[in-house]
Amino acid sequence: MAERCVNRRDFLKILGAGAVSLAMPGCASGAARVGEKRPNFVFFLVDDMGWKDAVCYGSSFYETPNIDRLAKTGMRFTQAYAACPVCSPTRASIMSGKYPARLNLTDYLVGGRRGKLNPAKYIHQLPLEEVTIAETLKEAGYATFFAGKWHLGGEGFWPEEQGFDVNKGGWSRGGPYGGKKYFSPYGNPRLEDGPDGEHLPDRLASETASFIEAHRNEPFLAYLSFYSVHTPLIARPDLKRKYEERRKNVQAGEIWGREGSRKVRLVQEHAVYAGMIEAMDQAVGKVLDALDRLNLAKDTVVILMSDNGGLSTSEGHPTSNLPLRAGKGWLYEGGIREPMIVRAPGITKAGSICAEPVVSTDFYPTMLDIARLPDKPKQHIDGISIVPLLKGRKSLAREAIYWHYPHYGNQGGGPGGAVRAGDYKLIEFYEDGRIELYNLKKDIGEKKNLAEKMPKKAAELLGMLKAWRKDVDAQMPTPNSDYKAKGR
Q1: In a domain, 436, yes or no
Q2: Which of these, 42, 222, 225, 444, has the minimum number of CB atoms within 10 Å of its CB?
Q3: Which domain holds residue 194?
Q4: Residue 108: inside a domain
């Protein structure tokens, strides 16, 4: 396997060098500012951060001054979507530009629950044959760096095998479960332990800032993929105390509601989670400060995104996604709509807001567009460059956005698929074929099912969803012969 990987990368390096040397200015949109050096990229991927978990998205309990300043100097998206309601598939979609269903990487690694159906079979790593955005940028002369959570396969499939020159902390685990978890010693084979008690988000930010400084004279991709705010729920003691005091002043009504058989949090007042959010935000600030100090902000595109919705229906129920319904693990908006901010100097207008739906597969072609590099349409087949939106256009020529989650999420969601076309979103539940149709413009909380009232629209979207599944060869769940309904 190792020999094949080396040969493939040698081949791609030669092929990529040739492609770049042949690329002319007209091969891409020329989105970046004119200059000899290509723009740098800093990509912040937050784990399990909900749509409303920043002040600039409406939180009144958490503090996120650095994410907010990024929004004030860039473009904030109000309808940005993860390609899946759980982590690994979304991460794969960013790296590859492909829908999880097309990759057959449709659940986190490794998923588990069964019910009336057996979950669809899926692969447990991002295939080495996929040419990642990191590999493509590296072929074009970029220095590439990864820090934090990877969760896209076992050893042999880690960041250093997928185009990153440096890997600080990325391995097979989906959370900081070794050592002292969010504090050193970390028990992470790709991150050296720091002083006893060192905080993981701050350490990852320091590693990122050091890489940026070392490579300030060449184009770079710095990809900081936080373990925060994933479980285990552990905050710095000072921040925990701060939010325990703040919680005393929260004027809350009902704290809990119901989503199916699960209770769902309705109010943001979890002190530990709030402390984790603020610590992550401080880490974002450390990297932004490094760009300012090194006079690189004007040459660097900064992106911030979450991999799935906030955790509201299980594992401590730490946050609320209201007005969105449900959270991580569900195909309702709370599970897939994410905070997303892009600051692209010379392209985005400071403090601008975009309401056009976009999805995590779009980053790959967008970054190539900004860097004035040729498209790889066979690779990022499910993504669209959003540079026109960054420049101020109001819409994209996209038919629909699709989801396929043929699994039982730990958070209570079941196997299903979804499609959004225009203002309408349809969800199909695979256990019984039930469908729900919502007008998200009028009903962001998905409270009014229009399937019976608008049968033609429901049939249209269901037909689109089924045709898409066939096109990408989506794997479906199968009947579970061992299933016994409750009470029988």
Answers
A1: no
A2: 444
A3: 35-399
A4: yes
Residue 194 included in any domain = yes
The rounded distance, in Å, linking the Cα atoms of 482 and 116 is 8
Cβ-proximal residues to 420 (8 Å cutoff; 6+ apart), any chain: 81, 357, 400, 401, 440
Task: Give residues with Cβ within 8 angstroms of 332, minimum separation 6.
Answer: 324, 325, 326, 427, 446
Q: Chain centroid to CA 325: how far?
A: 18
Cα(16)–Cα(9) distance, integer angstroms: 10
pLDDT at 110: 66
> Is there a contact between 173 and 151 (Cβ–Cβ < 8 Å)?
yes
When the pLDDT of each residue in the chain is averaged and rounded to a whole number, the result is 92
| pLDDT digits 0-9 by tens, 129-181 | 999 999 999 999 999 999 999 999 999 999 999 999 999 999 999 999 999 99
pLDDT, tens only, 277-300: 999 999 999 999 999 999 999 999
Instruction: Output phi, psi for 417, to 5 deg.
Output: -135, 165
Q: In whole angstroms, how far apart are CA 284 and each of 60, 80, 276, 422?
A: 19, 20, 12, 33
Instruction: Indicate whether 432 belongs to any domain.
Output: no
Domain count, the chain: 1
Give residue 135's identity as a one-letter amino acid code. E
Give pairs for 247-254: CB < 8 Å, separation 24+: 247/61, 247/271, 250/61
Structure-token pair, residue 16: 């990529």
280 contacts 228 by C-beta, under 8 angstroms: yes
How do residues 170-218 score in pLDDT, each as one tens digit?
A: 999 999 999 999 999 999 999 999 999 999 999 999 999 999 999 999 9
Q: Where are the alpha helices (DSSP H) in 97-236?
A: 100-103, 133-139, 200-214
